[in-house]
Structure formats: C-alpha cells, structure tokens
Amino acid sequence: MLKDKREVLSQLKKDLLHWQGFMPKECRVEQIGLGPVEEAFPNGVFPMGTVHEFISTCREESAASSGFISGLLANLMKNGGVCLWISTIKALFPPGIKIFGVEPHRIVFVCMKREKDVLWAMEEALKCEGITAVIAELQELDFMQSRRLQLAVEKSRVTGFVLRCNPRRIGATACVARWQIRSLSSELDEGMPGVGFPRWEVELLKVRNGNPGAWKMEWSEERFIPVIQPPIQATNSMEQNRKIG
Amino acid sequence: MKRRFASIWFRHLITDWLTIRRPELSNKPFVVAAPLHGRMVISAANAIAEAQGINRGMVVADAKAFLPDLEVIDERPKLAEKLLKAIGRWCIRFTPIVAVDNPEGLLLDISGCTHLWGGEREYLKDIVNRLRSRGYDTRMAIADTVGTAWAVAHYGKATPIIASSCQLDALLKLPPIALRLEIDIVERLHKLGLKTVGSFAAIPRSVLRRRFGEGLLLRLGQACGWEEEFIQPLKPIVPYEERLPCLEPIRTDKGIEIALQRLLEALCKRLSGEGKGLREAALKCHRVDGKMVQIDIGTSRATANVTHIFKLFALRISQIEPALGIELFVLEAPKVEDADPVQEALWSNRTGLENMEVAELLDRLKSRDASCSIYRYLPDQHYWPERSVSVASSITEKPTIDWQADRPRPTRLLASPEPITVTAPIPDYPPLLFRYKGEVHIIKKADGPERIEREWWIDKGEHRDYYYVEDDKGQRYWLYRSGHYDDDQSSQWFLHGFFA
C-alpha cells in the first residue's frame, strides 16, 4: 500500500515536471549545448518551452547576457525558426550576434513605447506556435506577470527569455530559471596579443526543482565550451593525495 | 459595350448657389467680384444681370455706371470647386463614375446606367429637373465621347442627346470653341474665317497640324472618338468592395461585429476564389446623420483569412462611434496582392518567416499599438557601423549578401557614441585606461586599430580608428578615436558599444 502511494507520488512529480516544460531524460535529442550547466536542471535537460529570466545590473552585463542568449538561440533556431526581440529601445546591434551563430535577419525586432506594451507583446508572441523564441528586454517583472507568461508557453512550447536590465526589485517569479551572466577576462595562448574569445561566468541563481550553481563558459568554435577549472586546484588535490599517501 | 458620357454645365453655378442661400437676391441683378490688379473684376453674374449686358471680366465700376442698383458680392476663393465636388458626390446616385470638369461642369460616365431610368431621355430629364428644382440652371448633353457631350452641352442648340457614332454631324454647326481649344487657336481660326467646326473638319490633317498645331487635332479626335480620353473619377473605384445596407440602424458593438463578419466572409470568399489576398482594408460606416466613420487595418502579408482579419478589426471596433446608428457598412480592400494558395493550405507546416502565424502575430501587434515599430535587419554594403545594416522592406525579404563576421562587432551598440577620456600612447596604440561616466577602466587586452573611413560620398567628417578592448574586470568595449591626433585633443575618443 505504502509502496503504491510512493509510486503514485513519484509519477505525479514526473508529470508535473513534464507539464512545466522539463523533458524526461530519454528525450535528450534537444540539447542546447551547454554541457555541465544542463545538469543543473531536473532530469539534466535544458527546459525549452519555458520562460527564463536573465538579471543584469549594468550595460556590460546586459551585453554579456545578450551574447549568451544569442548562443542559445543559435541552437534553438537550427531548423529555420524565427524569433522576436521585443524592447523599448534599439540597443542590439544585429551584426554583433552573427558570431554566436544566429542569422540576424531571422530575428524580428519589435520596439514598443512602454514596458506594459512589451509585456503584452511578449505574451501574445509566446502564444504563437510559429515562433521559436521570444526575447523581451524589461526592467520589472512581478510574479503575476511572469505567471501569465508561463501559462502562455505551457500551451505553445515557445521558449521565452526575459532580459531584465537594472531591476529595482528582484522578487519571486514563475520563471523556470534565473540567470546572471558576467563577463570574464578572456585568455589566450601564451604570448598571443589581442582579446580572446568571449568568456563568461554563468550563474544560475535559481532553478525550479534543480540545483543552482556557477560555471565558467567560453564561446569558441561556434559553441559553448566549459572552461576547465584552473589546474592549481588539481595540483592541490594531488598534493593532498600525496600527503594522504 | 458602347461607352456613353454626359456633360453637365452649370451656367450660373455661383450665383445660383447664392440665390438658393439668399432668396431675396432672386429678383435683382447681382454680380460676384474679386480684386484683380487693383480693380474689382466681375467673376460671375446672374441671369438678370447678364440680360442687361453685364458679363464676366467687366470691371465693377463700369457695370455700376449703367446699372447703379447692381449688387456686388465678394468672391469666396475655391467656392466653385467645392460646390462642384459636392454636387458630383450627389450625382453618384446616377452613375458611379463622376468627374469634376473645372471650372463649371461635371462629367459623367453613364455607360450602362441609363436603362434603369427607362432610357437616356428620361435619365437626362431626371437629372436636369432635379438640379433645376434645386435652383441650378443647367444644361446637359449625352454623347459617345466626352468632347462631344461637352460641346453640345455648352454650345448645342438642337437635341441634347447625340446618337451613337454621330458625333461629327452634331459638331459641324458648332463654333470651334466648343472643341475646348486654347484661346489663341480659336482666334486664329476666326481670323481665317473658320467660324464652325464643319468649315475645317474636312481640311487634311497635315495642313491643320502645320497651321494650328497638335492641340487642335487632339481635341477634334477626342470629340469624334478617334482619340482616347480619360476622366478622373471623384470617388476612385475600388475593385474589391462589399456593401451591407441595414434595415434598422445599428448602434451596438455586437451589431457591428456581425456586419463585419458577413462582409469579410463575402469579400474573402471572392478574394480566395481569385487567388488574391488583401494587404489593406477599410471599414466605412455610413451613419444616419450623414456622417461617415472609418477604421483601417493593414497586414504584413496578403491574406484572405476571415478570422485573422476579423481579429485585426476587432481591436479597432471600439473606435467607431455609432451615434444615432449606422445604416450602411462598406468594406473596401484598396490594396490587394496575389496570395499563394498552396501556402494557405500548408501554413501550419511552414517554419520561420514564411509562416502565416508569424505574419498574423505581427499584424496584431501593429494594430493594437500603431506607435510600435516592427522591423528586420539585412546586411548592407557599408563598413560604417551605423550604416552596416538596412531595414528590410518586407517580412520575407532575403539578404543578398552574407553577414560579415570576420571583424569584431559589439553585441550592443550605443545609438550615439559617448565621449570618454583616455590615456593612450601615440601614435596608434590602444589606450592604457579610459574613464567613462566617472569610472576608470584599466585596459588589459586590446585589438586594433581597425580604421573605418568616413564615406565621403554620403557625409563629411573624420575617419574612425576602432579598438576592441578588455578591462581588468573582463568587460569588453568598442572604443574609437575620431580622426588623427592634432593640437585639439579634447573629445577625440568615444565609446561606441559593448561586447558580450
């Protein structure tokens, strides 16, 4: 009897995850190419068909977030999709996201006057099944607004990204994950001049039913490459091993 | 079908209108005058004044000399045009194609309309009687061509209806001015004793051309039907139009919705039957009080999808003010394009920008908030960053060249470059540090310079040397130095963008 109940419960939990947009482990075909970051999500699959929230505190961070999102879009739009970028100002420079593997002419830019209209447009766009992803640049997003967005995507399976620049208040939202992307110094081979590939510290502040964490990622060879932790740590552990030995 | 035209001539348009408005003027001579070269010159005189020998073009002082109780009224500019347009609109009940024939006439294309009145004679009588009962002194004529109808209306003395293909016979007796010729040609004809059209109609064309120019031949040809003549309809004919008259005036939103639905169904059925789709549509609501309210929509792709177009209109229905009620709905599609019928059938399978759903979504966004701007970018053949992208003209436009990815370009570009202060070694090294908004950034790594020359054929100014730099915190910027170093070192460096 007790075992039955447990089974039912675990089945229900699985179903709930499925409805919220998390795919079971078997459908790992839809990989986003984030490597270790994906392990932070339930079942180890990056949730598509949900709303993600990106926090940025300055313009540099929002540029980094735009770049990171573009990298994700490249994977999402592989089979000829189209995405909408809704904002109140024209800030994104289309040629700049080409290096992240996105065809800039496949992005439709929508410029609204007020934030309220941006939210409305995003909700309308998220309901439209012909769109792959919707990105909205917003400042504020409260729980109710994010709930509406989440309800919209649950039917249409469109992926939404809310890029929040300088939010005044960071409250609870119904978004599946909260990210923060910061730039990191790029690194080059010894003695090479110039600036290297873009490198970020990708931090998952919140993941619903998952494990938050921070990773270092680099964009090179047209994909995300996790930066292997510096070898200092490895030598430390080796020393420890030696000591133990 | 044989084309038939009618010409209406208002002999005393302005004075008749004044008499209608001020009945006390009906029994006395009066003129309308306007100042010309410092004198008051008569521009219109009523029938009584004309009978006493006062004509337009006379100076008021001369006219008053032999008719002291002549009343003079100041001319209102553009009045004749306004009156003709109003009467023309009223005439649309007789034929859909009505044109204004300045300065004092109307032209009607009456092909296929007269049988509804029981023949041309009855048709003509009806129009003239109605206008006369209003108080307008009119003359009207019907013929195969505009030119003949005009000539007979103005100068004809016999029957006003010219039978088909008898234009030349009707014209023979008329003076040459009836052909709408220029004044100097008419004077030359008179000097040569050619007082009627018949006296020169038989002269060989080459002789007429040599003597009087192409204008005379053209007018003669137009009157006789050898040359084509077009008239400019007062109300443009919309080929895709549906009308819905209402038995009872409609005053509610629901009523308007039902009317709209019916009109759309009829229009879209016709459009899809012809393989077309509409790009623009207008719903005109004619109210009981004679006013008209209109709402317009536009779509980004040709569509004949009733539910979609209805949704676009539904967002605007609240703007219609029914007042006492709407008695006639007219749905027009002024802009219609070919739609691919196969695409309609497979729309759910299409991805990307070909998808009909995306186009419909964009229409919805646009129609809810007209101030929102929707655009796509295409690469443009310019190195200058602000001009390196162009806005796509349509939703399906494909780029003709590839996006350039061989040079570093920032993810976010400032709308206008912001000045920064830097410490930089000369001649062309990247800065060691820069100060932006009070914050000092120490530069650790840098790429550049990438010199982008000003496009001198577009605008003037200095070239820019761009540097891709990374500061000690790992933030990446796009800086540039404007022009060469010179004595004036101020505000030469700018921040133009942020890299990811």
Shape of chain A: globular
The most extensive contact between chains is: A-B, 59 and 58 residues
Strand count of chain B: 20
Query: Which structural class matches the secondary elements of chain B?
Result: alpha+beta
Biggest sheet of chain A, strands in spatial order? 3-2-4-5-1-6-7-8-9
| Molecular shape of chain B | elongated
What gyration radius of chain B follows from the Cα positions, in whole Å?
35 Å
Strand content of chain B: 25-35%
Largest sheet of chain A: 9 strands, mixed
User: What is the percent of helical residues of chain A?
Assistant: 25-40%
Number of helices of chain B: 15
Characteristics:
heterodimer, A: 245 residues, alpha/beta, 5 helices, 9 strands, 31% helix, 24% strand, globular, disordered C terminus, B: 500 residues, alpha+beta, 6-stranded antiparallel β-barrel, 15 helices, 20 strands
Could you walk me through the main structural features you see in this protein, from its secondary elements to its overall organization?
The complex is a heterodimer of chains A (245) and B (500). With 245 residues, chain A is α/β, with parallel strands linked by helices. In chain A, 31% of the residues lie in helices and 24% in strands. Chain A has helices spanning 2-19, 59-76, 115-126, 143-156, 231-244; strands at residues 51-56, 83-87, 107-111, 133-138, 159-165, 177-184, 199-207, 213-220, 223-226. Chain B has 500 residues and is α+β, with helices and mostly antiparallel strands. Chain B contains 15 helices and 20 strands. Chain B has helices at 13-21, 47-51, 60-66, 79-91, 120-134, 146-155, 167-171, 183-191, 197-201, 205-212, 214-224, 253-273, 306-314, 341-345, 356-368, and strands spanning 5-10, 30-36, 39-45, 71-74, 97-101, 105-109, 138-143, 241-250, 276-287, 292-303, 326-338, 373-375, 377-379, 389-391, 412-423, 433-436, 439-452, 464-471, 476-482, 493-498. In chain B, helix 6 (146-155) packs across helix 11, helix 10 (205-212) packs across helix 11 (214-224) and helix 13 packs parallel to helix 15 (356-368). The radius of gyration of chain B is 35 Å and the shape is elongated. Residues 344-349 of chain B have low confidence and may be disordered. Chains A and B meet through helix 2, strand 3, helix 3 and strand 6 of A and helix 15, strand 12, strand 13, strand 15 and strand 17 of B.
